[in-house]
Specification:
2 domains; disordered N terminus; alpha+beta; about 190 residues; single chain; seven-stranded antiparallel beta sheet; about 25% strand
């Protein structure tokens, strides 16, 4: 290889490295501008996904209630691209409410383990725990995010001549039940002496 060829290869590699560094720094700057690496950015992102899932969940639940349909457990999920979609399992509609809820919860865990899901909103109806309220039932929306935050919105409702009357939602603390990952014990190998 001549000195000219090796010099041009050296400059090509050097130019390629310089371009890669510029791209990496630019991508990092854009990510930091969006707040993706800050606690505040994560909090805002999580809040936006929770709000979008809750709106979709309540729209779906309200529509079914106004049509006179019972609500069995269903979910609203956000994938890693922030696309929000409703998840229903047809067979769950035939199960008792407590079984339907557990089947949906376990199904969401499987979805999360398979990847691609960044946030979940498990939705179900329960008796209203506030005995002083006029609303007999509540729609519970248990929300969890892969980044760790959890929240449950409890929305009282009643039906009056086929019209749904929705009360003010109340946020309550909740514990993770979907994004629960067990730490695996390191495998030990048996050593023969």
């Amino acid at each position: 290889m001549s000195m000219t060829n090796s010099r041009s290869v050296f400059f090509s590699v050097q130019t390629l490295l310089a371009v890669l560094l510029v791209v990496i720094f630019a991508a990092t700057a854009v990510a930091q501008e969006r707040g993706e690496f800050t606690e505040e950015g994560v909090r805002e992102f999580t809040q936006q996904q929770f709000e979008a899932m809750y709106r979709k969940a309540m729209a779906n639940a309200s529509e079914r209630l106004e049509d006179g349909e019972a609500i069995k457990a269903f979910a609203v999920v956000a994938d890693r691209k922030s696309e929000i979609r409703v998840v229903r399992i047809d067979k769950v509609e035939t199960f008792p409410p407590n079984v339907a809820l557990e089947v949906m919860r376990r199904s969401l865990r499987v979805l999360v383990k398979n990847g691609g899901i960044g946030a979940t909103c498990l939705v179900y109806v329960a008796p209203n725990p506030d005995k002083d309220s006029n609303a007999e039932f509540v729609v519970v929306a248990e929300m969890e995010h892969i980044f760790g935050p959890t929240l449950a919105q409890v929305t009282p409702y009643s039906l009056d001549n086929g019209k749904i009357k929705v009360g003010k939602p109340v946020a309550v603390e909740s514990k993770p039940s979907i994004f629960v990952f067990k730490k695996q014990e390191p495998r030990t190998t048996r050593q023969d002496s």
